[in-house]
Description:
This protein is mainly β. The protein has a single domain, classed as Sortase (Sortase, Chain: A, Beta Barrel), CATH 2.40.260.10. Helices cover 3% and strands 39% of the residues. The chain has one helix at residues 80-83, and strands at 10-12, 23-29, 52-56, 62-74, 90-98, 110-118. Strands 1-2-5-6-4-3 form a six-stranded mixed beta sheet, with no helix packed on it. Strand 3 and strand 4 form a beta hairpin. Pfam families: Sortase (PF04203). InterPro entries: Sortase, Sortase_dom-sf, Sortase_F. Keywords: Hydrolase. It comes from Candidatus Kaiserbacteria bacterium RIFCSPHIGHO2_02_FULL_50_50.
Amino acid sequence: MDVPEGPDEVAWFRFGPRPGEVGSAVIAGHFGWKNDIPAVFDYLHRLREGDKVVVIDEEGTTATFVVRAVHVYGKDESAFDVFYSSDGKAHLNLVTCTGDWNVAKKTRPERLVVFTDLE
């Protein structure tokens, strides 16, 4: 999965479904951009079970998802369940980094994932 280029961009896992289609659509975005520039997922950590996420595609079609769970993975921990589901339903999983910035590695040590289900 690509990393978004800028703080206001997201990356979609193109080998999976689009948001609203059956399976697990995955979108990644940045948290904590340099020089205090706002990033698209700066507030992702505030989502809780039952909150709603609305996605609007390029044609103006909306899909509403409900947060099912929030999980933090280690940077190198297996996250197979983020990209795969077999229940025949549509999911949207949002991914960003979290934890303290590692200057030497230029990354954060963990990944925050918000799991959602199509309403």
